[in-house]
User: Fold these one by one.
Assistant:
Number 1:
Amino acid sequence: MSGPKVVRVVTREELEATCRRWLLLVGEAAADLLRSANRFGLASSALEAQVAARRATLEAMFRSEQWVDLQRDAAQAIEHFRFEGERLRSEAVAAEAAQRSRQRRTLDAARSIAASLAKAGQPVPVALTAAIEGAMTATGADLDAMQRTVEASIATLVQGQPKTQSSGQSDLAARLNAGGPIPAFAQWLEENAQSDPQAERLDGLLSELSTCATLVDITDLTARAISISAEPSADRRALLTDSLVLEAARRLRDERAIEAATAKAMQVRAELAALSSERGHACSIQLDAAITDRNVAKMRARITDGETLLEEGRRQVSAVARRRAVLGGLASLGYEVREGMEAAWAKEGRIVVRRPGTDDYGVEFAAPADASRMQARLVGSDRPSSPRNANRDKDQETIWCGQFDELRSVLADHGGHVEIERALPAGEQAVKTISLTSASPSAEVKITKPQTRALPRS
């Protein structure tokens, strides 16, 4: 296909910039994972080593210019880090929920035993009363001590039971009279405790809130939960629990939205820092303010602004790299490429280059501002030194086809590539006629080799 072509040029600089961005995103995901591990108390040297090793592998791929493989593996690494973060969060939520459940069940057991002792006319131990008052906030050794108090009170209750007893109480008394062991706290719960789905849901919601990356303060919700647990009426406790469950669920939805927006805002902020522009710096400041204010609407708006700036920056720099790579490649093939052509191409959207001694024909490259696609075609002079006809035009198109293949090889040698998206056979479309004397800017300095420039790190 030696007629007009529509091509996509990908430069080494673009590939390098894309991979730098992937490395940045991997770094953000890795940092988020390690922050989560520390927040949940699940950090370990093994996890840190795993994260460091994965990042080191990607850095090595970057140094060896494995651009395609790096992009694939970087995406997988980000997904892995996010999965690990969610796994750690689930572990933390489960542990927190188990703790809250243990507190609640201790309270319920203490309250039940105290009521039974009072009904049986037996004194309620001071320690059992303390367990009722403090179980919902107790942890560690204090909670263990309260459970031992409940176990001792179970023995006191069973040993002092009158002859008229329930079947469960009779079984306990028979075991004690026979020298059997006093039932342990867990066993008593298994045999006597009644599940409360709403209370368990509340425990789960509060546990999830306590693990949010936004470090939300749930002191008020926890205080209300403790207050509800002190209500003597089971019906009122249920009613108040329902209300608190709704409030906790709403708060969790809000915090999840803030958490997601904050994570995205931090990612965009990190990319803007690599952009090194005044507009990018200003947007970063606005992102900081929105993050501090925990304002989801503002964060989303600034994220959109930031992503627009980043995309504009990538397009602009990539366009420069593409035009420069093509002109440099043509210069290496002997085409007259002069200073000023790059700027003229960007301004006019098209450029025409010729080889010395071929005054009747040239090659036109046309592209939009971002040079995302280019049209490459042979053009002929409106005032040829020798008459032009269809056969001569076709021969020149065939020659250009071979030179275009050479151009592709030159760009490939410099780490880029050219994708042909559409091409017409030679002679199928008439060669475009233009004034070659005014097609290119004049200048004194000639570029004689491909020019390269590193894109800003992002």
Number 2:
Amino acid sequence: MKKKLSTKELILAGAFAAIFVVGLIAMAVITGFTPITFLMVAFLTGIVLGPIYMLYINKVPKRGAILILAALCGLVMSSTSFYPLLFSLLCGLAAEVTSGLGNFESPKYNVLGYGFFSSMFVGPFLSILFAKEAFFKSMTQYYGEAYVANFASLAPEGIILGLILSGFIGGIIGGVLGNKTLKHHFKRAGIV
């Protein structure tokens, strides 16, 4: 197996990234309706996007593919600060290393790698740690004062670690579902 991404694989990576980013934005919109579901965005997004990620890693099993997807997701999530991009790259690197332990072919390592990858969906919340007032001010512009007050009451100081863990757990669940989807649907259809 060649180590570098071919032109065909880069095109596939771009196509999957587009699908993944649309799913990411859709999940952000859907979960944004209430503060409680907004706090669950990493967990729920990890579950919902798991099958797409597993198909992606099976179609483009090379070094760099996961990092490309992480960078694109990080750019999309970085509308108000650069923290999501940095965190996405860190999570993408952890996923890349983890999946690489199984040569991007081991279902167990790919699921574990997706757990790390899904932790990145917490990126937009990292501003709570570093620029809390600016984060809430920005949220007020989008959602209104009542929403932000409710959100603030649900988000104590140490919530970030809990959110990262929930993203990881959602990623593990989504990865397992993705592997089952690969076996039952995509392999039978000849897609993988």
